[in-house]
C-alpha cells in the first residue's frame, strides 16, 4: 500500500511537471506569433530625390520646355523588399510622367502622375504640377566650338591645335529660341597649369549673344575635345659686348664663352622677332685675364633655362709707339 501511494504521488508529480512545461511552451509560442503579426503591420517609407520627369508628347512635331526636370517621391509599403527595389535606380520600375499628348502649342500647368508602381507601394509626389511651354519644333545643324583657352595653360605654353569630334551637332528647339542661338559649345570644366596634350568629353550647350544658355535638345549630347599644346622655343646665338671703362694701359679686350647659344621659350610671335641675345660684359678695372659670371638680360616676353654664362676676359695691352 505504501509503495502504491508513493508511486501514485510520483506519477502525479510527473504529470504536473509536464503540464506546466506544455503550458509555458504554448504561451511562449503564442507570444512569438503575436510579435511577428505585430511586426508585419509596420509601414516602411523612403524619400527619393531627383527622380526625372518624363514628358510624353509628339517629339517629331513639338519642342517642350519644362519649368523643372525632376521631383522628389515619397514611397511607403509594408513590403521592405519591394520598397528597396523601387528605391534603387537600377531596379526601379516606376516613373513620373507629364502626359502632354493632347496639348497644342502654348504654356500650361500640367499634373504629374506615377506610372508602373508596384501594387504593394504607395507614392506621394513632392511636386504635383509643373509648368511647361510647348512650341513647334525646328532643327538645325551647328558647328561646335569649345571653351578651352590659353589661360588654362602653364606659363609659356601655347595651344597648337584643337579638334572636336563630332564637328557638328543637330539642335532641336522652338523657332523663337533657335533664332537666339549665337554659338554652340562643348563645355569642359575650367582648368589650370596644363602643360601636356589632353583629351576630354564635354557636354554640348547653346548660348545666345549675351552668353546666356538657350534651352535646346542636342544630338549628340556630348563631344570629345582633343587639345595639343607646346612650349614654343628657339635657339639664338649670344652676342658678347663690352660694357664699362677699360683699365689704364689696356687697348681692348677679347671675350671667350663656352656657351655659344641659348634656347628661349615664349610666344611664337615674340620668338620670331628675336635673332640673338646681347651679353654685356663689364670690364671696369680688368687689367689681367679673368673669368666672370655674367647674368643674362632677356628680351621681354621670353624665358630661358640659362640665366647666366661664364665669360673669360682677356685684356689686350696698348702698343708702345
Automatic annotation (TrEMBL):
<protein>
    <recommendedName>
        <fullName>Secreted protein associated with spyDAC</fullName>
    </recommendedName>
</protein>
<dbReference type="Pfam" id="PF07949">
    <property type="entry name" value="YbbR"/>
</dbReference>
<dbReference type="InterPro" id="IPR012505">
    <property type="entry name" value="YbbR"/>
</dbReference>
<dbReference type="InterPro" id="IPR053154">
    <property type="entry name" value="c-di-AMP_regulator"/>
</dbReference>
Amino acid at each position: 500500500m505504501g509503495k502504491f501511494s508513493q508511486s501514485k504521488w510520483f506519477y502525479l508529480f510527473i504529470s504536473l511537471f509536464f503540464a506546466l512545461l506544455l503550458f509555458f511552451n504554448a504561451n511562449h509560442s503564442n507570444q512569438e506569433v503575436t510579435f511577428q503579426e505585430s511586426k508585419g503591420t509596420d509601414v516602411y517609407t523612403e524619400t527619393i530625390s531627383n527622380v526625372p520627369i518624363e514628358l510624353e508628347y509628339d517629339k517629331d512635331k513639338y519642342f517642350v520646355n519644362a519649368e523643372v526636370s525632376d521631383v522628389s517621391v515619397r514611397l511607403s509599403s509594408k513590403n521592405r523588399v519591394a520598397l528597396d527595389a523601387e528605391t534603387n535606380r537600377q531596379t526601379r520600375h516606376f516613373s513620373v510622367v507629364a502626359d502632354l499628348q493632347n496639348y497644342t502649342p502654348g504654356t500650361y500647368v500640367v499634373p504629374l502622375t506615377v506610372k508602373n508602381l508596384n501594387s504593394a507601394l504607395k507614392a506621394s509626389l513632392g511636386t504635383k504640377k509643373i509648368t511647361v511651354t510647348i512650341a513647334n519644333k525646328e532643327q538645325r545643324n551647328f558647328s561646335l566650338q569649345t571653351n578651352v583657352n590659353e589661360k588654362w595653360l602653364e606659363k609659356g605654353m601655347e595651344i597648337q591645335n584643337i579638334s572636336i569630334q563630332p564637328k557638328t551637332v543637330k539642335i532641336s528647339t522652338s523657332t523663337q529660341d533657335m533664332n537666339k542661338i549665337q554659338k554652340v559649345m562643348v563645355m569642359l570644366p575650367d582648368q589650370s597649369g596644363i602643360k601636356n596634350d589632353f583629351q576630354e568629353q564635354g557636354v554640348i550647350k547653346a548660348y545666345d549673344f549675351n552668353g546666356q544658355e538657350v534651352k535646346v535638345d542636342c544630338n549628340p549630347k556630348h563631344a570629345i575635345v582633343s587639345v595639343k599644346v607646346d612650349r614654343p622655343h628657339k635657339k639664338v646665338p649670344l652676342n658678347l659686348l663690352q660694357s664699362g671703362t677699360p683699365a689704364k694701359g689696356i687697348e681692348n679686350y677679347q671675350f671667350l664663352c663656352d656657351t655659344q647659344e641659348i634656347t628661349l621659350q615664349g610666344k611664337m610671335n615674340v620668338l620670331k622677332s628675336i635673332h640673338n641675345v646681347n651679353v654685356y660684359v663689364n670690364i671696369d678695372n680688368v687689367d689681367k685675364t679673368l673669368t666672370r659670371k655674367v647674368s643674362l638680360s632677356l628680351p621681354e616676353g621670353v624665358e630661358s633655362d640659362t640665366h647666366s654664362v661664364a665669360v673669360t676676359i682677356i685684356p689686350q695691352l696698348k702698343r708702345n709707339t
